[in-house]
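Please, structure for the following, as tokens.
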Amino acid sequence: MPHFLEGYFWNVSNPELWVGIGLILFFGIVIAAGVPKLVAGTLDAKAAKIQAELDEAARLRAEAEALLATIRQEKAEAEAQAQEMLRAAEADARTMEVEARARLEETMARRQAMAERRIAQAEAQATAEVKAAAADVAARAAEAILTARIAGQTTDPMLDAAIGQISTRLN
């Protein structure tokens, strides 16, 4: 049985009665003063502040995730662009190599043709020098024979025929 239902509890000399009355008065004053509304308002304000912070954190997280996705996409695009640049550079290098080989072959062909022309000129010049030297030797021999002939006044028909043919054979 509850204690406050006993007759002793309602006796004015009972301190427990006065503690109960004081407690009821205290709660009445607290309620009349609006403390529950104040506490509820403070708790609601704190809850709203915490909810705002959570919303801000969620928004910041969403922004960070979007930024991360953007960065990853830009990274992928940059890597793709770098790969494309590398492929283009390799293609350019191959093209330049082919062009350089073609220029080298062309240069070598020109130099070979020039060398062949110089060799031909040198051969022609050597042939001309040999012919000139042979003509000079023949002319000296003819002069020596003619000098000896004039000195001896003898005629040799074979010698006369050979001297006549020298000019036609040298040219």
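The chain is about 90% helix and 0% strand. The chain has a mean pLDDT of 87.
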